[in-house]
Amino acid sequence: MLKIKKAIKVFFILGAVIISIHAIHALTLDRTIEYKEVSLNSSRWPEKLDGYLIAFITDIHTAPDEVLQSIVNELNERQIDLLLLGGDFSMKDGHYIRSIEILSEIKTTDGIFGVEGNHDDYMRLFNVMEAYNITPLSNSGLHIHNGFFLAGTEDLWNRNPCIATATLNAEPGDFILLVSHNPDIAMKQTTGGLDLILSGHTHGGQITFFGLWAPWLTLRSSITEYGQRFSSGWSLSRDGVSVYVSNGTGEYFHIPRVFARPQVILMSIETVK
To answer: Which of 65-74, 117-126, 214-223 shows the lowest mean pLDDT across its residues?
Structure first.
């Protein structure tokens, strides 16, 4: 009986420690932006563009203006070549308009491009993007440089994304980067001609157990059909193409992040030599 009581005591102490660690993380690191630096090497990447730096911001939702302004300030110190927006703003009370206005202040070599997310009214979003010189990608794409083709799709939940249509104007041998808000598209459509997919949508699980996908804790266990596969970071499409999923940047109805730190992704690409 004494052993059982000791075991129960240890169990409760351990549980209290784990809860405390998660609470502290949620109140500290999970409230600060991580500028996550990642890299990709590809034999199809144009050598003349080695070191090219792409910033990827997604799932802004209701991020406060001061947070977005801090991102602008940080990225303007880093000499970004291209800024990509992965969708999911807050359409309520016109919050998305101010968010886009602030982000449009980020200086780039080759422009700012964006796709819609499942929380966006794409017509209103795209109109505001264009007003601030941000190019919407909606099952469409274009050459950023010779040998580098950028494409973006409609949202998987709201409309009819089509990778084939988005990449229709790419040339054989192009490095093709696809932006799709929802990473599940990488398992539902052919991705064989692509080289890199950037997505968000899953929020890194939002509320996790030491960073692991926890269906009993997470904001929405049905956010993806593929479990831990697209929770955060590097993964592969059904055809073996590299997929990178960002935790996203903003707040979702003020629900705390737990071991799912908000991120801005800084992707550098170089040729395999």
So the answer is: 214-223
CB 155 within 8 A of CB 149: no
Q: Which residues pair with 152 in a beta bridge?
A: 140, 179
Task: For the chain, give the percent of residues with pLDDT over 70.
Answer: 80
Alpha carbon distance 229, 187 (integer Å): 10
| Helical H segments across 119-234, by residue range | 122-131, 163-166, 185-188
Poorest-confidence range of 28-32, 134-138, 143-147, 180-184? 28-32
Structure tokens at 207: 């509320």
Paired tokens of 120 = 């966006």
Asked whether residue 168 carries a pLDDT value surpassing 50, the answer given is yes
Reported in sequence order, the residue ranges of 97-208 that DSSP labels E, i.e. its strands, are 112-114, 135-136, 140-145, 148-152, 175-179, 196-199
- Which backbone phi and psi does 248 adopt, to 5 degrees? 85, 170
**Residues 24, 244: contact at Cβ < 8 Å?**
no
Taking residues 168-193, report their average pLDDT: 96
Residue boundaries of the structural domains of the chain? 32-271
Distance, CA of 107 to CA of 207 (rounded, Å): 33
What does the pLDDT read at residue 219?
A: 46
Amino acid identity, position 197: I
Residues shown for the chain: 273
In the CATH scheme, what is the code of domain 32-271? 3.60.21.10
Task: Report the distance separating Cα 151 and Cα 156, nearest Å.
Answer: 15
Residue 121 pLDDT grade (very low, low, confident, very high; cuts 50, 70, 90)? very high
Contact yes or no for 261/30 (Cβ under 8 A): yes
Using CA atoms of 138, 144, 150, 155 in order, give the dihedral in degrees to the nearest 10. Answer: -30
